[in-house]
Give the backbone structure.
Amino acid sequence: MKKGRLFVVSGPSGVGKGTIIEQITARLGDSVMLSVSATTRDPRPGDVDGVNYYFLTEEEFVSRVSAGRFLEHAYVHGHYYGTPLDPVEAAVEAGRDVILEIDVQGAMKVKETYGEGVYIFILPPSIKILRERLSGRGTETAEVVDQRMGKAMGEIGYLDRYDYGVVNDDLDRAVEQVLDIIKAEHCRVMDGEAEQIISEYREEK
Amino acid sequence: MKKGRLFVVSGPSGVGKGTIIEQITARLGDSVMLSVSATTRDPRPGDVDGVNYYFLTEEEFVSRVSAGRFLEHAYVHGHYYGTPLDPVEAAVEAGRDVILEIDVQGAMKVKETYGEGVYIFILPPSIKILRERLSGRGTETAEVVDQRMGKAMGEIGYLDRYDYGVVNDDLDRAVEQVLDIIKAEHCRVMDGEAEQIISEYREEK
């Protein structure tokens, strides 16, 4: 059976990546899995372990980091957060794709630890539209909007480190493009594929 | 306007790459162009200049080679054959895709001269089926079939140098996969794309 792939999806706030990923999982069903983060923060009411987060003690978290069982992790406001490697490996080995929605810093760390990922950046149709989306209902001050725009531009500066850029000017079109990318990446030539075919030939002789 | 891309398609004889390419061009119409080779051999009855080949004198051919106007060329049985760069560049600049069907040696030369191509290898469903296809109607001697199989294996040895491998076990499925690859490659992040968006932001301010 052919292995699954890890698809890492990033993009500035307000660009609609969450909606795109929802539609992708609705379309692909069980063949795709969303990566769930692990954290040491306490569960909040309604949080389900393994769905919203994997809830770990600090000891568990740190010991798994030392064992190399995280694709990336960070310490934010007194708590650890990270992407556990084991569920990704299990899914990929079982032929399922994994979608990991993560910010650019996290994505760059994943890129260092996991060579075979596919990196997709979701882009706004234009600067003007991004500004509109980040302005909320016009209730935000110009200062807050400028701050958000500056952050978004900092993120877009990482675009060149991604494999694909999908412009979310039309939701259906953006979803189709991500689906095309997922299907195309299943045709990627993998290490040792030629050798496997040639050894099949040698065995036949 | 977004530039087109060059798709280089190879695969062993008998694998059905010609039929796949026919269907792709039928599906994509004017948005895609087949690359036409140039040659110094004489036109045969029915040959149309610019359709079957570009027919050049030896002087013209050699002078264009010196000027770097070929993606690749070879001298075979007393004649030059090659892939002219100019029609590819013109199409790509005009936003059209180009499909170049070429053997592995030619594809490897193109890879050296043209960095931005997408390399697709068409694979047989199995060794057994490839052997059947190369046996013709069973009229070929075992020696000839073995020779053809050996050649095919030599070609498959280049698979790892290609970006994608498409198994032609079902024609419709193989055509869909090549179409997925073409669509996905249009989402590839290009050099300078981030800088362009960020400068749009700077101008807006």
